[in-house]
Amino acid sequence: MEPDPPCRWVKELPAGITVCDRSGTVIGMNDASAASYASDGGYKLIGSNIRDCHPPEALKILDSMLESGTPHVYMIENRGTRKILCELPWYTDGKLSGLVELSVVLPDTIPCYRRDP
Question: What is the pLDDT, as a whole number, of residue 4?
Answer without folding.
Answer: 60
